[in-house]
Amino acid sequence: MKLVFFGAPGAGKGTIAKIVYDKNKIVQISTGDLFRNAIKNQTELGKKVSAILERGDLVPDELTIEIVKERIKEKDCNKGYILDGFPRTMIQAESWEKIDPIDRAVYFDISDEVVKRRLGGRRICPKCGAIFNIYTNKPKNEGICDNDGESLIIRKDDQEEAIENRLFIYHEQTKPLISYYKKLDKLVTIDSSVDADTSYQQIIKALKL
Ligand code: AMP
Ligand code: ZN
Questions:
Q1: What is the whole-number distance in angstroms between the Cα of residue 58 and the centre of ligand 1?
Q2: pTM, two decimal places
Q3: Containing H/E element for 4?
Q4: CA distances, 182 to each of 25, 186, 190, 205 (Å)
Q5: Of 2, 88, 104, 118, which one is the catalytic site residue?
Q6: 3-state DSSP call for residue 57?
Q7: Angle in degrees, 0-180, between the axes of helices 13-24 and 196-207, rounded to the nearest 10
Q8: To test the ligand 1 pocket, which listed residue (13, 59, 166) has its Cβ within 8 A of the most ligand atoms?
């Protein structure tokens, strides 16, 4: 099954994609993770996109499409995949339908207010990647990772200004995908202001996984 997960930043796409992978073995392809890894490993790609990610802007369509195209050639994608955070623009969506048409696009519906709280409260461990939230998923000791005692940090693109920018771009560029996939009869909408498990249950039901 080929799925797209889209919605506002902080809607929980990545979290749910990981649960679907654990339970249903459909691989998650997160363009955000691919870019962040490239930056961490200081590859050519990483150098190109690092400033873009810090601002919360979008990486150019052509480059993004190319990266996903390469990624799905890997063996773990032969039974399908979840595209998490891609497509994010009409150009990406229309291009992808020509490259490898998807089965369903899951729209994670959430208000800007909840997004701001989730992203603004997010703290991550630079060592193991664990994600906490100062409102909803506090670490046992403030500012410290439960797993390894490392000091937690705020992602640059989770700073207030970058969040505003990402939300703006989301409304301008990504929201039109709702009617696009609706017209193709591929749209599934879930309420993602609820906890991860409830979101997952909605997806299971809608996709009959
Ligand atoms: P995410 O973790 O999905 O929020 O992605 C982090 C950042 O990576 C975004 O703010 C963009 O700068 C970039 N990015 C991720 N996916 C895409 C995409 N489909 N198109 C363009 N830029 C993207
Ligand atoms: Zn850690």
A1: 6
A2: 0.90
A3: strand 2-7
A4: 26, 6, 14, 18
A5: 88
A6: coil
A7: 60
A8: 59
143: left (phi over 0), alpha (psi -120 to 50) or beta: left
**What average pLDDT does this structure show over 143-157?**
95
pLDDT digits (tens, 9 = 90+) for 115-143: 999 899 999 999 998 999 999 899 999 99
- Which residues on adjacent β-strands are paired with residue 189? 107
Report CA-CA distances (Å) from 52 to 76, 83, 155, 160: 29, 20, 14, 16
Dist. CA 168–CA 182, nearest whole Å? 22
- Asked about 123 being catalytic, the answer comes back as no
Fold of 2-199: Rossmann fold (3.40.50)
pLDDT computed for residue 136 by the predictor? 86
DSSP string spanning 91-157? HHHHHHHHHS--SEEEEEE--HHHHHHHHHTEEE-TTT--EEETTTB--SSTTB-TTT-PBPB--GG
For the record, the structure tokens of 198 come out as 């409830």
Q: What are the tens digits of pLDDT across the range 158-201?
A: 999 999 999 999 999 999 999 999 999 999 999 999 988 999 99
Nearest ligand to the CA of 153 is 2
Question: How many CB atoms within 10 Å of residue 161?
Answer: 10
Measured from the CB, is residue 199 less than 6 Å from ligand 1?
A: no
Q: At 188, which helix (H) or strand (E)? A: strand 187-191
Determine the atom of ligand 1 nearest the C-alpha atom of 162.
Answer: 10
